[in-house]
Specification:
The chain is of the alpha+beta class and 250 residues long. It folds into two domains: 69 residues, Arc Repressor Mutant, subunit A; 137 residues, Endonuclease, Chain A. It has nine helices and ten strands. The protein is elongated, with a radius of gyration of 27 Å.
Length: 250
Amino acid sequence: MEIKTILQDIGLTPNEIKIYLELLKLGTTTTGNIIKKTGVHGSKVYDGLERLATKGLVGYVKIANTKHYKAVEPIRLIDFLKDKKKKIDEQENEINKIIPELSKMMHVGKEESEAEVFQGWKGMETIFNDGIREMGKGDTWYVLGAYAGEDRERTDRFIQKVIMKCEEKKMKWRIIYNESARDTFKYEQKSFITTNRFIDQETPATINIYKDVVFIALWIRDPIVFRVRNKKVAESFREYFEVMWKLAHK
């Protein structure tokens, strides 16, 4: 990975990166020289230097009433990350304190049924993580029409992570695969928490049922999930699953 990409990933802006890298090369220098070398507008250089100083990555000395800036040793980047982690840990603790109150607000006046749409791999991750959180030891998750979709490798990696989380909770999975998925999901099929069968028909989407939730996943390049939370709907889909289970084969 390129240096600029890594620095951007840890939280530096493009202008901050230009300034910081140029300072590493120049040593101690003036603002005017930084503007000339980086091509960054003057006001943005001043802002960038101030932010870098706040992050502990740039220092300065005054020579003849003029500030001369200098990048600190690159090892300071590690301290910068540690500071960020400490801040995130503190924020996580604060969020954990208010989650119960926020959850109460969310459930006030909650309808018996709710329907939601999630898009993308992050949306898919949210859906599965929600389900795993709600499930307990010995609870069963039902899947009808499992298949790898358009991005087989990514889907396979994603489901493997899901199953590993479920193994930790000692949940149970009963899965009816499309026959075309027999050679995929190898980790899932061999897991001690799954019981598997196959159907010859090809279903266009995967139906997941757990507790009072049903969600239909479309495993396209940019996945889409439709989630319904309704006890009666979930029960009816479980009944449908049992019918299909009897028709499926090993």
